[in-house]
Prior knowledge:
Elements: E1 6-11, E2 20-25, E3 28-32, H1 41-44, E4 60-62, H2 68-71, H3 74-79, E5 86-88, H4 90-117, H5 131-139, E6 141-143, E7 151-154, E8 157-163, E9 171-177, E10 182-185, E11 208-212, H6 224-237, E12 241-245, H7 251-264, E13 272-276, H8 278-288, H9 296-303, E14 313-317, H10 320-325, E15 333-337, H11 347-354, E16 361-364, H12 373-378, E17 383-386, E18 389-392, E19 396-399, H13 409-416, E20 425-429, H14 433-447, E21 451-453, E22 459-461
Helix pairs in contact: 4-5, 4-8
Amino acid sequence: MANAPSIQFLGAAGTVTGSMHLVTASGRRVLLDCGLFQGLKELRERNWRDFQFDPTALDAVVISHAHIDHTGALPLLVKRGYRGPIHCTKATVDLLGVLLPDAAHLQEEDAERANRHGYSKHTPALPLYTAADAEQALTQLRPAPPYGQAFPVAGDITVTYRRAGHILGAATVDVKLGPGPRIVFSGDLGRYDRPILPDPEPVAEADVLLLESTYGDRIHPAGTDDELASVVKATADRGGVLVVPAFVVDRTQELLWMLHHLEDAGRVPQLPVYVDSPSATDVTEIYLHHPEELDEEFMAEIRRGQTPLHTAHCHFVRAVEESKRLNDLRGPAIIVSASGMATGGRILHHLAHRLPDPKNTVLLVGFQALGTRGRSLQDGAKTLRLFGEDVPVQAKVETIHGLSAHADQNEMLRWLGGFKRPPRTTYLVHGEPPAAKMLGDLISSKMGWSSRPAQDGEQVPV
Ligand code: ZN
């Protein structure tokens, strides 16, 4: 039936980036997320393809959260003619004000580098999009009413956001198709009983569920504090520098929170901590401007006049010159810098400088997608390609999975336990195939629900 409601998976199907799904119902088209592909080259090249729909024919865009793999194609959508509303939570509006111009800047840098070194097929190489496109996208953002309150997005289609607990402003997306069925999109689910953000909120019902599966094959170990304390102490004992590639949203803030509390408890020495990222610095400020997003423990510390996102000797670095001067820094010290999977940004020069020295440690604290430098380090690479050179990896490389912002297997099942009736079908998105498969098997055996991985490009009835 031409008019039957449907959903089409246009990204993050069989992979963890490029989140994008198109809902069509009663002649309206609503895009859920508009993410950039990251990681492997063949994925990144997909960013350059035409959209599989006409951007000018969309009625609305609904964003789950600010991460670039969920929002980074918004400037491109706008560049290709979309002028309608982009709905997101209030905190997401503020975060995108930092992240989208940043993403555009990286695209412009890539193009400039390609031109300088002449390695583009096109002369001159053009950026995927520009800062002007990002600015235009920002003007189309529409802050949603508070969590739990339904709002109209197109025709009789309404959306209700609920807390996902993943990063500031992250929401699950409950899409009601008028008098018809209900699609629930998990976005990225966060953790339970973690500092800063409240737990993911349960959702009671869905006819079709799109569930992320990033860590569908993993259970995060407990004792994250102990692991972090031992990595910090071991690096300090060697007189080394602890280098942490961290996502600017949430990983940086949770790390600062944990270091602050470990210092207070006398469990780690009070080392100089450098947050070398203007974006992470801005985002840390944004956290403090959104009390509606923060958990009770955090707000209680604020009321007591504490600064929970600072350590004893904490420096936020904005200027490029100051960032470069960190190369002269002698350990023990901690440098936190973006990007979180070491795909770009200032972390690259810190890795180039610190990796050859066995005194230093590189600490990975978030999901590392296939094809990224972070993943290579995690998989034990002996050298890392940086600025056209193979840099020897002599530093220790540690991973603390418990510091991830993503729910593990048990936490996803816990969230699914909030549904009062099983969805008719659950499609697994946002996971590499082994993770999606394992989560699907668990959902069948533990919940008795029908589920399967979403196939890239397929369109399914709702
Ligand atoms: Zn995310």
